[in-house]
Amino acid sequence: MHNQFSRTELLLGAENMERLARSRVAVFGIGGVGGYTVEALARSGVGTLDLIDNDTVSLTNLNRQIIALHSTIGQYKVDVAAARIHDICPETVVHAHRCFYLPETAGEFDFTRYDCVVDAIDTVTGKLELVMRAKEAGVPIICSMGAGNKLDPSAFRAADIYETKVCPLARVMRTECRKRGIRKLRVVYSEEPPITPAQSTESVPGKRSTPGSAAFVPSVAGMILAGEVIRILCGRNSG
Fold first, then answer.
1. In this structure, what are the phi and psi dihedrals at residue 141, rounded to the nearest 5 degrees?
2. Rounded (10°) angle between helices 14-22 and 218-233
3. Which pLDDT belongs to residue 204?
4. Which CATH code of 3.20.20.140, 3.30.1050.10, 3.40.50.720, 3.40.50.2030 fits the domain covering 11-233?
5. Residue-wise pLDDT tens digits, 197-234
6. Which of 8, 24, 103, 123 could anchor a disulfide with 48, C-beta 3.0 to 4.6 Å?
7. Which secondary structure element, helix H or strand E, spans residue 141, and what is its range?
8. Contact 63, 214 (CB under 8 A)
9. Torsion of CA 139, 145, 148, 150, to 10 degrees
C-alpha cells in the first residue's frame, strides 16, 4: 500500500523506515540551517522531533529561512516549524522548546532520550556544551559550522572537525574540542573563504557585524545535516 514515504522506502527499505519512525532527533536552532534540517527529517519519516529555539520569525529571515513567511513574522520559530511538520505528517510527534540553549539551560534536556542530536546554533559556548552533553550521553551529534557570508553552496562538506579547513568557526571549534579531549566530531562546513559583508543598517557599534546570507547556502547545509542524520539512524557509515 502506498503512503507518503513510499518513495523513500524504495531507497532505504522497510526496516530502515521503521527505524526512522521509532527515532527521536533533537534539532537545536531552527533558523536558516536548522529549519531545512527539521523539514527534511520530517519528510524522511523521523517519528519524533524536538525543536529548540527561543527566537521569533523576523522580516530579515524571509530571504533564507523555510519557515519565514509574512504570515509567520513575530511567531516563535519552533511553533511555526511544529505546525508545518504536522501539516506534512500529522503522525509526527513534535516537542517544541522555546529555549535559547546555553550552559545555563543545558540541564533542561535529557540527552539520553535522543537517538541523534543536530547542532544548528550560532554560539560557540552553546555548541561546545551540546557536544559535551551528547558525548556524555553516548548520543551521536552532528554540528553545523558557519553558513553566513557565503555564496557557494557547492563548497559544503561533511567531515570530522579535525579534517576541516578554511572555515573560521571550525578553526575555533577544533581548538576548543582539543582542549576538552574530544577526539571526534562530525560537522558540516564550507571550504569557501568568508566574504566581507557590506555595512549593514542593522549593525550596532561595538557588536559583531551582521553576517550576509543567501537563500541557496544555509538550505544546502541544512540538507546535508539531515542526510547525515538519516545515515546515522539507518546504521550507515557517515565516512
1. -135, 145
2. 110
3. 47
4. 3.40.50.720
5. 987 665 545 456 789 999 999 999 999 999 999 999 99
6. 24
7. strand 141-144
8. yes
9. -130
Question: 44-70: per-residue pLDDT in tens?
Answer: 999 999 999 999 999 999 999 999 999
Q: Residue 29 in 3-state DSSP?
A: coil
C-alpha cell at position 19: 527505524
| Per-residue cell: 182 | 574530544
Other beta carbons within 10 Å of 138: 8
- Does the pLDDT value for residue 239 go beyond 50? no
* 120-157 pLDDT per residue, tens: 999 999 999 999 999 999 999 999 998 999 999 999 99
pTM: 0.94
Q: Are 195 and 151 in contact (CB under 8 A)?
A: yes
Distance CA 164, CA 189 (A): 7
Nearest-angstrom CA–CA distance, 55 and 18 = 33
User: Which residues are within 8 A (CB) of 141 and not within 5 positions of it... i.e. 6 or more apart?
Assistant: 116, 117, 118, 119, 130, 131, 134, 135, 185, 186
**CA distances (Å), 224 to each of 67, 75, 103, 136, in order?**
18, 27, 27, 25
What is the 3-state secondary structure of 57-120? Answer: CCHHHCCCCCCCCHHHCCCEHHHHHHHHHHHHCCCCEEEEECCCCCCCCHHHCCHHHCCEEEEC
Locus of grid cell 557570508: 149
